[in-house]
Design goal:
The two termini are 33 Å apart. The chain is mostly helical. The chain has two domains: 1-48, no CATH class; 64-267, MetI-like fold (Orthogonal Bundle). It contains 13 helices and no strands.
């Protein structure tokens, strides 16, 4: 009982430390400049909701928000489709060089973006993809494939082989077995993968900063950086802009947290 109580206390402390920055930012976004001096945890006398309107208009976050949505959906949907195909292939088929190909694909998990961003910039420049949303979408699809293939492979391997064999006996080919049998059974894993891809793409900062100099193609994290440079002295306005960026992710995570945990644990059941 004492061990369980200690575990609950540690978990509560960890949760408090994780949530605290978000609470402080939201409170600061509703204050005036002089009210910030009273303390970071003090509540505002009159909530300044106009901070959000001003940040949205002055920072042109409407365009940046639309860009982030386009890029996130442009990365998530193809990445899930391609990861499903590669994960299925590595989970259910043994072919010459499959282990080597799978290991090569997983190199994307250990090579940091910082090591690839300079050569990637020159490749995109040669392809005339700088200052464009497609120049953000295609590289992030490629970078998502390593983790997506690993997770989907593990998910497909947790499905009993008898189900696959039964579908083949019923006359289904490999393509039909994947989309009519395996894919529906892996929906928790696919939902988890889509959620993680969306969060990673939404928060990506370095690649949009390097690829797109034109403000018309900035995403929210890059737009926030330039907004912060402009309004350095106005902390409530910066806090409101930060809240605009992270609040959609918090809402999405709270809505799908059960599915996220279920999908991650599903892939860990069988190696």
């Amino acid at each position: 009982m004492n061990k369980r109580l200690a575990a609950y206390i540690l978990l509560a402390l960890g949760a408090a430390l994780a949530v605290l920055p978000f609470i402080v930012t939201i409170i600061a976004s509703l204050k005036t400049g002089p009210e910030l001096v009273q303390g970071i945890f003090s509540l505002p006398d009159d909530a300044q909701w106009d901070n959000y309107r001003e940040a949205w208009v002055q920072g042109r976050f409407g365009r940046f928000f639309a860009n982030s949505i386009i890029v996130a959906l442009g990365v998530v949907i193809p990445s899930i489709f391609l990861s499903t195909l590669t994960g299925y292939a590595f989970a259910r088929f043994q072919f010459r060089g499959s282990s080597l190909a799978f290991g090569y694909l997983l190199l994307g998990l250990v090579i940091p973006l910082q090591a690839m961003v300079v050569p990637l910039y020159y490749v995109l420049r040669e392809l005339n993809m700088l200052d464009s949303l497609i120049g953000l979408i295609l590289p992030q699809i490629a970078m998502s494939m390593s983790f997506g293939t690993l997770l989907m492979r593990q998910g497909f391997r947790t499905i009993p082989g008898e189900i696959m064999e039964a579908s083949i006996v019923d006359g289904a080919n490999s393509w039909q077995s994947l989309w009519q049998v395996m894919f529906p059974l892996s929906r928790p894993m696919i939902g988890t993968l889509g959620l993680m891809f969306f969060i990673w793409t939404w928060n990506e900062f370095m690649l949009p900063l390097v690829v797109n100099i034109d403000p018309r193609y900035h995403t929210l994290p890059v737009g926030l950086m330039y907004f912060q440079d402009r309004w350095t002295a106005n902390i409530p306005l910066i806090a409101a802009a930060s809240t605009i960026i992270f609040l959609p992710l918090v809402v999405i995570f709270l809505l799908f947290q059960r599915q996220l945990i279920s999908g991650i644990t599903q892939g860990a059941v069988k190696g």
